[in-house]
Amino acid sequence: MNGFATGVELRVDTEWLLQVGLPYGKGFAQQPTTRLTRARGWTHHLPISPIPNPQFLVKKLIYSQKNAIIAFVAASNSMQRQQSLLALILVLVIAAIAVITTIPIELGLDLRGGSQLTIQVKTTEDIKQITDRELEAVKKVVEGRINAAGVSEPLIQTVGSDQILVQLPGVTNPEEAERRLKGTAQLEFREQLPGTETPLLSYRFSRQELKGKVEEAQKSGDTEAIAKAQADLAKNTENIKELFKSTEPPLTGKYLTDAYPIPTQARDNWNVGLNFNQEGADLFANLTKNLAGTERSIGIFLDDELISSPTVPPEFAVAGITGGNVSITGTFRLEEANDLAVQLRGGSLPVPVEIVENRTVGATLGKDSIQRSIYAGIGGLILVLIFMVVYYRLPGLIADLALVIYSLLAWACFALFGVTLTLPGIAGFILSIGMAVDANVLIFERTREELRSGKSLYRSVESGFYRAWSSILDSNVTTVIACIALFWLGSGLVKGFAVTLGLGVAVSMFTAVTCSRTLMFLAISIPALRKPEIFCPQLPTSNKTEVAK
Q1: Of the candidates 48, 159, 170, which has an alpha carbon nearest to the alpha carbon of residue 108?
Q2: What's the CA gap between 167 and 172, in Å, rounded?
Q3: Which of 97, 262, 303, 386 has the maximal Cβ count within 10 Å?
Q4: Is the CB of residue 256 less than 8 Å from the CB of residue 328?
Q5: What are the CA-CA distances from residue 119 to residues 16, 81, 149, 175 (Å)?
């Protein structure tokens, strides 16, 4: 193609003509030739075809020499971008499959079976009202007692201003757990016996290993291994207990009025402050006087389990630590200091608790629920896949592939974020599948509108995604806002529904806009798939020639 006043030689790829929406018909030769050149040394090689009417094409294709080069570079960058997205999607799918096969999904109480207890925290003459601070302390004690009972993956959360909900998956006989929960936590400060410094260090070191073995056994689900690990841990707890003795009278949690973290001048280093009443201050002064400078420690026990063992400096050997205001120093981080303070406050609360509800969900019901949910999910998914192919033809098939990718990515997100799957959670996941399909429906309907208006196939697909994006964004953002409100204000099963729906909607936006788009442009780049009837079956005859260009 010669004769430009500007001195440019231009031959254009027929595939590129289709992508930029310009005419390509019977007059174009199909034999590939060579290149696009420009003065000043700029050259780019690509497969092209000679053009029979260069003057007409130049007028329609290029407004100026500069615009032609910009358009070509844009089309080239677009193809590279689509290839990169396709590679990203493939990597994500492989990663999702790896996550699903290696990380199991945790099942909730309604699917796995177990027990649910509602604990009512009661007031006393000394404590007229249960505040959030005290409720959190009691919750910490409940967590410790449930964990000591060896229950795997319990769910413990506050409900309202004076109740605690406890879900025990896999526990069908909760009497023992109920008995442990009814009593008040027993906090006690004890004196370490002489000559036991070395055994205490050994037992405390081995205790960390035993706790790790218990966690590994619970994850494996081996009941014999769990029982053995818990028995070893209980024996270790008993051995440590024998290294300490109680004071006379025992310095228990009833003398403790408060516990709180205290910042220090060192960065990220905290202490724990304790406040005793007058009687407790006297008992603590006597205890610290006996232990000051001996390298023996004060054993702080919660329900007979050692939670801390601070030592007393020698300067307190004469009178002990007096005044009732005590500071436990050490290399505590804020989280560790706050955790110890919560445990101490929980042990000091002389509040009774009452089990107001004890409900058992049988394992058979859980299995039936899982099976029916799986059948419902698979059945609904198959019907949606069939409808999309029948009604939308090739775009429907692409949407089905994107939907399968969505399901893999969403399930992998549930596993990665540690989502506990419940029946409402499954409902939220299925609903998010509908949201994903809805996004594709919007895109395909907009694409059909562009095709009926006479635009080329590439331009119609591009405009379809562009015009549908605002509607997709609005609907998904409003759904996510509703999920946040449900999670923030709801509890229990409602939170599970909100989490699965919110994660599903977020993933569906990615698959609808990225996966579907990339696969659609990949499809229209294949000459055999550029047929009007597989994109818009009822396209007017007058528009089919333009669409095929």
Answers
A1: 170
A2: 11
A3: 303
A4: no
A5: 70, 57, 17, 14
Q: How many CA atoms lie within 13 A of 498 on its CB side?
A: 17
Per-residue pLDDT of the chain (549 residues; tens, 9 = 90+): 333 333 334 444 444 444 444 443 333 333 333 333 333 333 333 334 444 444 444 444 444 444 444 444 444 555 677 778 888 888 989 999 998 888 887 777 777 777 888 888 888 777 777 888 778 778 877 877 676 555 666 778 888 888 888 887 777 666 666 766 665 567 889 999 998 988 999 998 888 888 888 878 777 767 788 888 888 988 998 999 999 999 888 998 888 888 888 888 777 788 888 899 999 999 999 999 999 988 899 998 877 888 888 889 898 888 889 888 888 887 778 877 887 787 777 665 556 777 888 777 665 555 666 677 778 777 877 888 888 888 888 888 888 888 888 888 988 988 888 787 777 888 888 888 877 888 888 888 888 888 888 777 778 888 888 888 888 888 888 888 998 988 887 766 787 788 888 888 888 888 877 888 888 888 887 888 777 677 777 666 555 544 455
Buried b (16+ CB within 10 A) or exposed e, 335-347: eebbbbbbbbbbb
> What are the C-alpha distances in Å from 316 to residues 232, 293, 311, 381?
38, 8, 11, 73
Distance CA 349, CA 254 (A): 7
List the CATH code of the domain at 114-196+243-360: 3.30.1360.200
Question: Rounded to an integer, what is the distance from CA 351 to the centroid of its chain?
Answer: 36
Per domain, the residue ranges of the chain are 1-102, 114-196+243-360, 362-547
Say whether pTM exceeds 0.90.
no
- Whose structure tokens read 């696969």? 519
3-class state of residue 64 by DSSP: coil
Closest CA to 543 of 475, 426, 432, 459: 459
- Rounded to whole angstroms, how far apart are CA atoms 428 and 482? 12
Token digits of residue 174: 């909760």
Q: Which CATH superfamily, name and number, covers 362-547? A: Multidrug efflux transporter AcrB transmembrane domain (1.20.1640.10)
Beta bridge partners of 117: 166, 358
Q: What is the DSSP annotation of 459-517?
A: HHHHHHHHHHHHHHHHHHHHHHHHHHHHHHH--THHHHHHHHHHHHHHHHHHIIIIIHH
The reply to whether 362-547 shares the fold of 114-196+243-360 is no
Q: Are 255 and 277 in contact (CB under 8 A)?
A: yes
User: Would you say 523 and 457 are in contact if contact means Cβ atoms under 8 Å apart?
Assistant: no
Residue 354 parent element (H or E): strand 353-361
Q: Is 256 helix (H, G, I), strand (E, B) or coil?
A: strand
139 exposed, middle or buried (CB, 10 Å; 0-12, 13-18, 19+)?
Answer: buried
Q: The dihedral of CA 284, 289, 292, 294: what is its sign?
A: negative
